[in-house]
Amino acid sequence: RVEHRGEHRVEHREAKRGQPGVNSRSLRARLQLRPASGFRYLNQSTVSTVSEWRERDRFVRTREALSVLGIGAAEQEHIFALLAAVLHLGEMRFEDCGTTMDACRVRSVDTLRLVAGLLGMEEHQFEVALTERSIGTVDGVLQSPLSSAAAQENCDSLAKHIYATLFTYLLFRINLVLDTGQGTSFIALLDIFGFENFDKI
């Protein structure tokens, strides 16, 4: 079968790298990734799947391209962890505390723990950042609780910010490699269709 031969070829190319932890299956397991249809940020498109072997082949090509940019295996792992965190942020759910104050808590505790780990944050600190707003005053910083709807919006905004910052960083690395020191030429990409075009976000 073509799929079998393609998958075998991809696995061989992955193995040739000789780097620990670069196998796509093991990485997917560590980052707890699932098909695109299982993520809110990905399943709102009419096209969310491609053949598995082709997906794996593109993944290997992506790693090769990142290596050309001087981004080593360890830094690539951080990049993929950030992208996984963005996807899992879309699965975060909140519920109101039922008090007289406008306050909420994280309902999806397992997802909270996972995303906090991917971002290198302490779980409680991350929950506070999602469910409370920091207000600067002359007397210091005050914490104001958020409603579940506001916390959800806050969470989606964080996902957008991480994605946009990573996108800008990768453009910077590309321009750094392309810079010959003989001019001001650079590469710029316009990403028109983004999170803001999904009606449910």
Describe, in plain words, how this protein is organized in 3D.
By secondary structure, the chain is mostly helical. It is built from 7 helices and 4 strands, in the order H-H-H-H-E-E-H-H-E-E-H. It has helices at residues 2-16, 24-30, 52-68, 73-89, 109-119, 123-131, 148-178, and strands at residues 94-96, 104-106, 132-137, 140-145. Strands 1-2 form a two-stranded antiparallel ribbon. It has a two-stranded antiparallel sheet with strand order 3-4. Strand 3 (132-137) and strand 4 form a beta hairpin. Helix 1 (2-16) packs parallel to helix 3 (52-68), helix 4 (73-89) packs antiparallel against helix 5 (109-119) and helix 4 runs antiparallel to helix 7 (148-178). The protein is globular. The two termini are 40 Å apart. Residues 1-12 and 14-21 have low confidence and may be disordered.
Keywords:
9% strand; 201 residues; two-stranded antiparallel sheet; mainly alpha; two-stranded antiparallel ribbon; 53% helix; globular; 7 helices; disordered N terminus
Helix count equals 7
Q: Give the integer mean of the pLDDT values.
A: 81
**Helicity, in percent?**
40-55%
Number of strands: 4
Radius of gyration: 20 Å
Low-confidence residue ranges: 1-12, 14-21
Shape: globular
What share of the residues does DSSP label as strand, in percent? 5-15%
Succession of helices and strands: HHHHEEHHEEH
